[in-house]
Amino acid sequence: MVLDTIGAVTATVRLDELTVRYGDALALDRITFEIPAGRSVAVIGPNGSGKSTLLKAIAGIVGPDGGSVDVGGQQVAIVLQSTEVDRHIPLSVRNAVTMARFSSAGLFGRLDGRDRAAVGNALRSLGLDGLADRQIHRLSGGQRQRTFVAQGLAQQADVLLLDEPLTGLDVVSQSLIGQVLDRLNETGVTTIMTTHSFAEAEACDLVALLATEVVAFGPPAAVLVESNLRRGFGGRFVRIGETLLVDDANDDHAHAC
After folding, report:
1. Measured distance CA(33)–CA(2) in Å, rounded
2. Of 86, 104, 153, 244, which has fewest CB within 10 angstroms of its CB?
3. Is 50 exceeded by the pLDDT of residue 251?
4. Which residues are paired to 36 by β-bridges?
5. Are 246 and 254 in contact (CB under 8 A)?
6. Strand order in the sheet with 206-211
7. 132 with 94: CB under 8 angstroms?
8. Interatomic CA distance for residues 183 and 126, integer angstroms
9. Which residues, 6 or more positions from 111, have their beta carbon under 8 angstroms from its beta carbon?
10. What is the pLDDT of residue 11?
11. In whole angstroms, what is the distance from residue 206 CA to residue 192 CA?
């Protein structure tokens, strides 16, 4: 159910019958919806519902087996849920964020003042300027996640994709990342993030509820209703008074709605 509540705003991302398979396994089944420019979008659903695959398809990391993805020629950046860094490679926070500018400078190009400004702004925005020379492997989990969000931010893309960017983070890191995403939306950047948190989804402009196919897409108040959630999450619900608890068998915790 794609809710007709978005209005006539130019779409940044258009998905038309998008289908993705991994071998015989169907990951996404005929996904169709449009995301207007400058909106924040939460992608929710049970484990294995295709959330991460959707981001990778939009980023061009995986190709469609059917249908299409159209980003209108705009630049797309992606921040993955976990990025492994070899502890034996000396990589500072500044180095990691600076890597985001290599595509604009070219393989043998030199970074200019605009590149350095983009890196500096990203570090400051995520509260990392005081940690810029620290090695990645010496960071806390929250600091490391902020570093990779800063790397995505430094690309100055039109569309920023984030795979569970706030999961398991400390309050400071959650707050800093949330503030950055809000400011990006205000400047016209579209942000799309996967999440297991209904609270995070409710704070976004739009929500896509997936269960390999689109169960519902639209404003949070219209998507995050019991009928849709039961379709999306199946029988993984326990009702306690007015509260619904989603218990994903492949996850370590329940999520309240």
Report:
1. 7
2. 86
3. no
4. 11
5. yes
6. 76-79, 159-163, 190-194, 40-44, 206-211, 213-218
7. yes
8. 12
9. 98, 101, 105
10. 73
11. 9
Distance from C-alpha of 200 to C-alpha of 198, rounded to nearest angstrom: 5
Token code pair at residue 236: 């993984």
What is the band of 246 on the pLDDT scale with cuts at 50, 70, 90? low
What would the two tokens of residue 162 be?
């984030």
C-alpha 190/C-alpha 157 separation (Å) is: 9
On whether the CB atoms of residues 5 and 151 are closer than 8 A, the answer is no
pLDDT for 133-142, tens place per residue?
Answer: 999 989 998 9
Indicate whether 5 pLDDT > 50.
no
Specify the DSSP element, H or E, that contains 29. strand 25-36
User: Rounded to an integer, what distance in angstroms lies between the CA atom of residue 14 and that of residue 245?
Assistant: 32
Q: Write down the pTM of the prediction.
A: 0.87
Determine the pLDDT at residue 106: 59
Count Cβ atoms below 10 Å from residue 114 Cβ, excluding itself: 12
